[in-house]
Amino acid sequence: MKQLFKFFLILGVGTILLSRCERDLPSLPDPEKKVVIKPNDFLSGENYDQLTVEIVSVEGYQPTGETINNLKAFLESRLNKSEGIVLAPALVPSPGKAVYSLDDIKEIEQEYRTQFPDPEEKKLTAWFFFADADYAENEDDSKVLGIAYGPTSMVIFEETIREFSGGRGQPSIPVLETTVTEHEFGHILGLVNNGTKMVVNHQDDIANGKHCDNQDCLMYWAAEHSGPLINFLTGGKIPPLDQNCLNDLKNNGGK
Ligand SMILES: [Zn+2]
Ligand SMILES: [Zn+2]
Question: Which fold has domain 3-251?
Answer without folding.
Answer: Collagenase (Catalytic Domain) (3.40.390)
